[in-house]
Amino acid sequence: MAEDLNWAIGGEAGDGIDSTGKIFAQALSRAGRHVFTSKDFASRIRGGYTAYKIRTSVNEVQSVVDRLDILVALTQRTIDENLDELHEGSAIIYDGERSWDADIPEETKGIDVPLKSLAEDAGGAIMRNIVALGAACEITGFDVEYLDESLEKRFGGKGTQIVENNKEAARLGQEYVQENYDVGDLGYDLETTDNDYVLLNGNEAIGMGAIAAGCRFYAGYPITPATSIMEYLTGRIEDYGGHVVQAEDELSAINMSLGAARAGARSMTATSGAGIDLMTETFGLVATSETPLVIADVQRSGPSTGMPTKQEQGDLNMALYGGHGEVPRFVVAPTSITECFWKTVEAFNLAEKYQTPVFLVSDLALSVTEQTFPPEAFDMDAVEIDRGKLVDDDEVEEWLDGQGRFRAHAATEDGVSPRAIPGMTDGAHMSTGLEHDELGRRTEEQEIRVQQVDKRNRKVETAKDEETWDYREFGDENADNLVISWGSNEGALVEALEYLEDEGVDVRVISVPYIFPRPDLTDEIEAAEETIVVECNATGQFADVLEHDVLTRVKRINKYTGVRFKADELAEEITTKLAEEVPAQ
Amino acid sequence: MSSDVRFTDFKSDKQPTWCPGCGDFGTMNGMMKALAETGNDPDNTFVVAGIGCSGKIGTYMHSYALHGVHGRALPVGQGVKMSRPDIEVMVAGGDGDGYSIGAGHFVHAVRRNVDMTYVVMDNRIYGLTKGQASPTSRSDFETSTTPEGPKQPPVNPLALALASGASFIAQSFASDALRHQEIVQKAIEHDGFGFVNVFSPCVTFNDVDTYDYFRDSLVDLQEDEDHDPNDYEAAKEVILDGEKEYQGVMYQDENSVPYHEQHGVTENMSEIPDGAPEDAMDLVREFY
């Protein structure tokens, strides 16, 4: 097991929890340590309870665990919320001068630091969280100087004085602990390395992937947890000649994106929760008009308004089947933050090659989690662009019928038609959500109806043959126990393998990023004695799909508390589940 | 753009299935003539059509076109224009499409002031579904779903546009071909969102708002009233006049700044490099 440290800061919304956590995470990353962050937050601007958690190690970390070593508690609730995770040897940094009487659990070490007073000494009470960071540095044996660079990054825009004050605040916190506490017995001593890492979350990876893939148009409507894709693109996509527009609702967002795509731009929209319900109205049009469009759904807990700031993977059926009628589509679900980048690039290529909607299904856990990677994990030279059958002015001529009309929906052998975009001479054509002929003109003739339905579905068949729909694999390839997962559970599963190994349980993990088309897992499931499908929903939507594919029963681990899987918890659940009887066939 | 484009070039070879005498014939003819007259050709024009009788216009015209989801024609048109400032965009739909199911989009399209044209064929009835009340139907207009009339005031689309900050508001009558074409032409030439509400009578299901009614009652702002469209107060007066109905350009903001200028969106977004942008690794380095 990696020598990891689990640190958290918690307080009320509005306490600057997020930015403080981010500063510490960046400092750890700059010190060559791996970082994995997670957030507990509520859909409110002030009050309540919110926390930013960091797991850090010199080895790669890709999950949270049920253990908290250092906790900066700005409120009593922060302590109460985390009682289960605190242990003998945990340290709690708190401000005894504040009005609440901190109730520090007996087995933990309370580190009372006058955060506010020291912050005032440094130039302002607002810096009390930074004082706490300094205190955390002393407890963890982490050089307080590592904070400097991230303080400069965070506060540089506010002037050098502010930056210097913050640096001073951190040092006052560090010195206070040094002078007043003996923290050596806690045994924390954070190692550093010379490695360079970047620290980003899944939504930033999707945004970056979009720009890399040549996306130039994004229309969206703010909704947690998808908004940060839009915020990432805003202010960056313009540098590449693109544009972000905040639409009046999701109906408009998807239709604007569709308009841009028909005009020839690589275009996308992203949403979550109820937003995807509204967008469903247009799925059929995207497919029938054969428009290349990337639609990202960053899943959150539903149904209805559900738990808007909580994790869930409940939209799989919607992505697969949403929309009336039969809508050909691709459904791609990145399993990690780097995959958020690469699958976004792939989504744009699939969309244009097959002129089909591509659903990029991510989830809240991926969207808010930040993780460290070597920059080469996002090698821009490896990004390939395939625009499919986008014709040029000369090629338009090849696709005109006897009367000079462009056959935008030509029923080709592979199902993919030539694509002309506005401005191309002689390419003018109409496209529509109505059933239509090769020219895009409305028809209800049976023969043509069948021809067009078949050609649209044929694109999916072509893609099945021509593209790779593989899975990612971890653990022991020959193990009798097979655990299958989709989406963000991959990291926790991979780390759970280490716990399971310690207990002598061999497991093969298959992490599936393609929901439709998807890899055929018949051989894998048949070869295993036990198969468990892990997902963050109550009914086991992916398990249902796999049972249907393979015609056999699988065991299921479902979590729908709104909290992502943790590695140690998952290992325990897998052990328990393996001991259960095999479900009836 | 060729100078020898004729309006018939914008005509497809599909024969309209509109009822004989439908106002939509005249509305469409005026649109095609206005497009040709303003130097456009089918290959640089994108027409977005709504759903309903009016929505069929995309089929009868020849250009790049999309016939989409009911009520969402305006968002599609905005997406086309924002990503392709070089393309002429015209959105056409009916009163149901624009003022009922798409009313929310109308308000915001007006606000954004994207440089495009929106032609609403307003017949004050749902024709394709065979005669139900529309948002512009009179409050006592009896239909199959409102046997005693809707008993609610009709939407005043011009006032809605004005309240939303429109930079160009006009109204025309399908049967007054020359004036209609002239007004649509002005909307195309306008630097911003050119909105034209066209009285386009339904000869089958609306026996109140008929050709005769409009012919007899319509007041022409330019000919009869010497109206100054740059005068906001005067525009307000005619738009909110509960007594008379007008045709002509009610309002045009001389200082209109279209969306693409406000936002600096000038690129043809369909052109992208073969791989990631040259300096894309900078995006990664931002996360150090």
Helix-strand sequence of chain B = HEHEHEHHEHEHEHEHHEHH
**How many DSSP helices of chain B?**
12
Shape of chain A: globular
Rough shape of chain B?
globular
CATH superfamily placement of chain B: Thiamin diphosphate (ThDP)-binding fold, Pyr/PP domains
Descriptive notes:
- Chain A: It comes from Natronococcus jeotgali DSM 18795.
- Chain A: Its EC number is 1.2.7.3.
- The complex is a heterodimer of chains A (585) and B (288).
- With 585 residues, chain A is α/β, with parallel strands linked by helices.
- Chain A folds into 4 domains: 5-196, 3-Layer(aba) Sandwich (Pyruvate-ferredoxin Oxidoreductase, domain 3), CATH 3.40.920; 200-382, Rossmann fold (3-Layer(aba) Sandwich); 393-466, no CATH class; 472-579, Rossmann fold (3-Layer(aba) Sandwich), CATH 3.40.50.920.
- Chain A has 19 helices and 21 strands.
- In chain A, helix 1 packs across helix 5, helix 4 (128-140) packs across helix 6 and helix 16 crosses helix 19 (567-579).
- The radius of gyration of chain A is 26 Å and the shape is globular.
- The two termini of chain A are 38 Å apart.
- The model of chain A has no long low-confidence stretch (mean pLDDT 96).
- Chain B has helices at residues 23-37, 57-60, 73-83, 95-101, 103-112, 157-163, 177-189, 211-217, 221-225, 232-239, 259-263, 281-285, and strands at residues 45-49, 64-67, 88-94, 117-122, 168-173, 194-199, 219-220, 246-252.
- Chain B starts with 22 loop residues before the first helix and ends with a helix.
- Chain B has 12 helices and 8 strands.
- The radius of gyration of chain B is 20 Å and the shape is globular.
- In chain B, helix 2 (57-60) links the parallel strand 1 and strand 2.
- Chain B has an 8-stranded mixed beta sheet, with helices on both faces.
- Chain B has a single domain (7-285), classed as Rossmann fold.
- In chain B, helix 4 (95-101) crosses helix 5.
- Chain B is α/β, with parallel strands linked by helices.
- Classes of the chains: A alpha/beta (585), B alpha/beta (288).
- At the A-B interface, strand 7, helix 7, strand 8, helix 9 and helix 10 of A face strand 1, strand 2, helix 3, helix 5 and helix 12 of B.
- Strand 15 (430-432) of chain A pairs parallel with strand 2 of chain B, so a sheet runs across the interface.
